[in-house]
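User: Structure please.
Assistant: Input sequence and predicted structure:
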Amino acid sequence: MPTMRSISLLASAGAFLISALAIGTPSEAADKKSVLDTYANIAHAGYQDSLVTAQALKVAVGKLVAAPSGATLKAARDAWLAARVPYQQTEVYRFGNAIVDDWEGKVNAWPLDEGLIDYVSADYGTESDENPFYAVNVIANPTLKVGGRTVDASSITKALIADTLQEIDDVEANVATGYHAVEFLLWGQDTNGTGPGAGNRPASDFDTANCTHGNCDRRAQYLLTATDLLIDDLAWMAAQWAPGGEARTNVMNNPDAGIVAIVTGMGSLSYGELAGERMKLGLLLHDPEEEHDCFSDNTHHSHYYDALGIRNVFVGEYKRVNGTTVSGSGLGALLDDGTRKSVLAALDNTIAKMKIMVDRANNGEAYDQMIGEGNAAGNKVVQDAIDGLLAQTKEIQRAAAALELSAIEFEGSDSLDDPSKVFE
């Protein structure tokens, strides 16, 4: 199972060719600015909601560490699941905005070699040709000695996690921070393969008085520290989209490039990232290690909210966690009626296909089971959602043409563009 990670491929068409939109009349320029204002407002609200839910997660994690029990562990897990809802809707901002894409690995990098952080099952293995830190288990080892290099891990601090361990040795699978590091600490490994069941870490893993698996004090400290780091990173990004923030300023000061950013983000998330790397790759390999929220079995929701985030920026509407709505002119407002309706129909079709996947998971068959080999019905549900994403990508390309974007490319994926490479 761990060896399959080594053939997980990065997107193959990473460069974006962006050209300016034709400069329109003053009224057209104003329309672009209103669309970009809504775009920035939705981003700000989404990252604020991500911050608020991460702060609620910190409260729940604090209660778990203070009084470990089945109830406090469940409450912390529920808080993590709730925190994923707004964050996943912000992923549409990644590919068109360098400030987001450069930052994103701190909070949402995956897949991770979890043996870097904590204990793992025997079948995980003890070493990897690609990653010297594959199974060093920083929670159990205050000093790490790898290949003649010594790392002082006696104190589990933000600096240790974020500056030393995160992508140590330039290995992307060394994920020490973000949602998925916290997820692993709350659920533990999912050792069920494509069978039923998620990770099943006991609450006693955090109980210093009745500790299971050792090092409960360090495990608790890692969980608290990683959660604090997540809050720090989300607060920083929320500030970038606030009035006067760098991300908002970047899109508002150049409306033509800002519209390109919207279209690039929608198309790249639809095609290379979501349809390709997050869905088709795992389906081709029938590999549960390729599911996005692999410890919690929450992947169906993550994919759904990614797709919803794409729709949000097109229609110009985002429903906040407090029940209010941020709304205004979406990208669709710049299109003729026929193109707008055609794109929206494709987006809604994808949401409907994702909803079928969510309903199937809610009825007992998790995403890693759906992509399992021999599960024809489950495979079809996932493939239908992929097909919806591919169809909506074509409609987004149609919108780009209507907006006279002469040279724009979306993120690609070998799993879609050249599947044979997946098996090399």
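The chain has 13 helices and four strands.
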